[in-house]
Amino acid sequence: MLRKIIIVLLTTGLFAIASSAFSEPAPMPYNSSSTCTPAIYVADAGDKRILKFTAEGYFVKQWPINVEQPFIYSVGIVVDSKGNVSVSDFSNNHVQEFDANGKPLKTIGDDGQLNDPIGLTIDSEDNIYVANSGNGSIKEFDSNGKLIRTIDIGLYSTPTGVAVDSSGNIYVSEADADNNLILKFDSNGKFIMKWPDPSIGYIQLNSPEAIAVDSKDNVFVADTGNYRIVKFNSKGGFLAKWGSYGSGDGQFNGPIGIAVDSKDNVYVADDNPFENENGNHRIQEFDSNGKFIKKWGTYGSGNDQFKNPRGIAVYSCQ
Asked: 3-class DSSP state for residue 45?
């Protein structure tokens, strides 16, 4: 089971991704003067950087190269309504926020509030939710970085991913030796339910490390240990699953980060941190029912390459 160095990433109301690994489009200038530019962000943990691309998949920039608090292990990533980017750093035990061009804005959690943070998400008010895997909780911070509340999952639990639906309900992926579950809480943090039902074998999860919610409040789970994506409705009802082990289109080496865009297309960070250059190190895009659309990325440190991509966020200026 992939633990502790695993991520989830999710955000809703997003945009689309294009891949220069699929084709060689003519160079397109990046208009940095636009007040709002759709963008794709990838947390590339192995190279300790964030990569920014246009919505069409053209490289824009990367960071950090030299910042006051360089990443040790960047995992979760999310974009708020203003286009600011928050990144969870598992090893530094904090979340850093940047503007859309990589300028540092603030740091959350340096006062000991976070312990091995992994997955991130935001709600309609730009509150940030952190899957605090080291002490079995979800931490919610306001847009200024002030702690609002703590939702306890369990002392020996390992929450890896977190998502919020249109009603404010909170979904948590839990991946540890004893539990491979999705937990649902209402907007006040009250526990509602968990799934899957242990009697239904074909939808049992194995190290679910990432979770995302679409516009219809369907829940997508990166079922990392089973090399697949599983789709549920908001009440835990099974809807679809796709994927198997491998490097072909629609196969996974380790589906470990996930995001859903405004058209409900699904983006998966496909990587296994223990296989280095032998891993897939790519992003794959699917429609909401699992039909393969495109793939993007190879192993390396280039502008369109990755070394252990852990999270993906897509911003559509909505």
From this structure: helix
**Which residue reads 């495109």 in tokens?**
294
Tens digit of each residue's pLDDT (9 = 90 or more) over 83-131: 999 999 999 999 999 999 899 999 999 889 999 999 999 999 999 999 9
Helix, coil or strand: residue 293: strand
* 98: nearest Cα among 137, 71, 136: 71
Strand arrangement, sheet containing 219-223: 208-213, 219-223, 228-232, 238-242
CA distance 159 to 8: 10
Instruction: Give the residue from 17, 30, 29 showing the smallest Cα distance to 297.
Output: 17
138-150 burial by CB neighbour count: b if 16+ within 10 A, else e? bbbbebebeeeee
3-state secondary structure at position 299: strand
Distance CA 236, CA 259 (A): 19
Mapped onto helix, strand or coil, the DSSP state of residue 160 is strand
The residue assigned the tokens 């084709």 is 23
How far is 240 from 250, CA to CA, in rounded Å?
A: 14
Count of beta carbons in the 10 Å neighbourhood of residue 233: 12
Spatial distance between the Cα atoms of 259 and 283, rounded to a whole number of angstroms: 11
Q: Tell me the whole-structure pTM to 2 decimals.
A: 0.87
